Amino acid sequence: MARLANDCFANPSEMISAMEALEKISAAAATVVATENISLFDAEGRILAADITSPRNVPPADNSAVDGYAFRFEEYAKGPDKPRDVIGQSKAGHPWKGALTPNAVIQILTGAIMPEGLDTVAMTEDVSRQGKQVILPTGLKSGANCRKMAEDIREGKVLLEKGTRLRPQELGYLASVGLGSVKVFKRLKVALFSTGDELINPGETGSPTSIYDSNRLILASLLDNLGCSVTDLGILKDRLPIVRAALNEAAKDHDLVLTSGGVSMGDEDHVKTALSDIGHLHFWRIAIKPGRPLALGQIGNTAFVGLPGNPIAALVCTLMFVRPLIKILSGANMEPPLAFKVAADFIMKKKSGRTEWLRGRYYVTNDGTGRAEKYPTEGSGILSSAVWANGLIEIGDDVTYIDKGDLVTFLPFSELMR
Fold first, then answer.
1. CA-to-CA distance for 118 and 132, rounded, in angstroms?
2. pTM (2 d.p.)
């Protein structure tokens, strides 16, 4: 199994841009998971580990797109309105195999193979039938209502490339050529925990100063959406030996260790110190908001990411930096999430030199125009803002002022969370 090179995330001490951080992730990370063959019925959300080539044509033969009557267009063109004999029937799975006679037609059902020599189909509702004869409608074109062999898939065609994540439509695509199993990458194994003496689990009873840990629920759900296998290590107390031992143990049988909290400069922020003791910390100073502090490093050749403790900062950093890292480690194709430009429905001033992601809501006005509004409060601890929002508004590092009507980049949560 491929593993990460030592110090693969090493980074100079100066502040870097969000774009530079993403470029470094793309350049340094590599697929670290092994492969397995699984049933197509179990493959939803999995990532292909090899290109898939079609073993057959789809459709395998010319067939009818409708219920109707198949005929030879060349004969029809010479006398469109003349009566024609119905000499047989072709059903899906039961093709007609008789001998054709001049100007004859075959009754044919949807999906049935076209009898050899016939090339066009008239729909049943457009045909006048009297006993064993029919009169076809005028004005039909050659090849009407006939699906040609291989018009969808040709034998030998590369259907899907390595790194493709399998959605329902891809599963159907592979099933249509008869595949029953696929070679996929194993799920990325992620160890997840939070740190902090003040944290307790939802459902527990604590003191008035206790804080319920929301980050692990957010992160576990995101990781599951990204196809990871998550080990929840719970909440670690702010004790350096405890944190150090947990990190060291988690790195032994996981591909990524992900934490929230404990990477700032405070006396009780032990994650950063523990990582320096047992691994390599490449503390990235990225010019972003929200997001600092964000720690990236390794324990041996297991990747490590230390997220901020504030829930919005943890959420945004996961979407913008951990998500692409996970895709590469998992073997998935690295593609930026779909985004679009939309008119801002707000005014704001901003510092130059850093990228900001605002919690935003895209909506359509009564006249059909799209707009993006931002949540009025920017605090990184305000989870209600993420519930209100349906995406993030990205403000580039060179922008210092946004006026109403200015175009901004909107990234829907539906794109970022998969």
1. 18
2. 0.88
Residue type, 256: L
* Same domain for 313 and 255: yes
Residue 342 to residue 335: CA distance in whole angstroms: 21
> Would you give per-residue pLDDT tens digits along the chain (418 residues)?
456 666 666 655 678 899 998 988 888 889 999 999 999 999 999 999 999 999 999 999 999 999 999 999 999 999 999 999 999 999 999 999 999 999 999 999 999 999 999 999 999 999 999 999 999 999 999 999 999 999 999 999 999 999 999 999 999 999 999 999 999 999 999 999 999 889 999 999 988 899 999 999 999 999 999 999 999 999 998 889 999 999 999 999 999 999 998 776 554 568 888 888 999 888 778 899 998 778 889 999 899 999 999 999 999 999 999 999 999 999 999 888 899 999 999 999 999 999 999 999 999 999 999 999 999 998 888 999 999 999 999 999 999 999 999 999 999 999 999 8
CA distance linking residue 294 with residue 284, whole number of Å: 6
Instruction: Count the Cβ atoms, other than its own, within 10 Å of residue 136.
Output: 23
- Any bridge partners for residue 306, and if so which? 259, 295
233, 199 in Cβ contact below 8 A?
A: no
For residue 179, give the CATH number of its domain: 3.90.105.10
Q: Is residue 6 part of a domain?
A: no
Between 323-330 and 18-28, two packed helices, what is the crossing angle to 10 degrees?
10
Tokens of 173: 């695509």
Same-domain pairing of 277 and 371: no
User: What does DSSP say about strands 189-195 and 256-260: parallel, antiparallel, or unpaired?
Assistant: parallel
Instruction: Dig out the tokens for 400 from the structure.
Output: 């210092």
C-beta neighbour count of 67 within 10 angstroms: 16
**Number of domains forming the structure of the chain:** 4
**134 plus 256 within the same structural domain:** no
Instruction: Measure CA 384 to chain center.
Output: 25
Identify residue 117 by its one-letter amino acid code.
G
Residue 312 main-chain phi, psi, to 5 deg: -70, -40
Integer CA distances (angstroms), 3 to 7, 189, 227, in order: 12, 13, 19
Length of the chain in terms of residues written? 418
Angle of the 240-252 helix axis to the 270-278 helix axis, nearest 10: 50
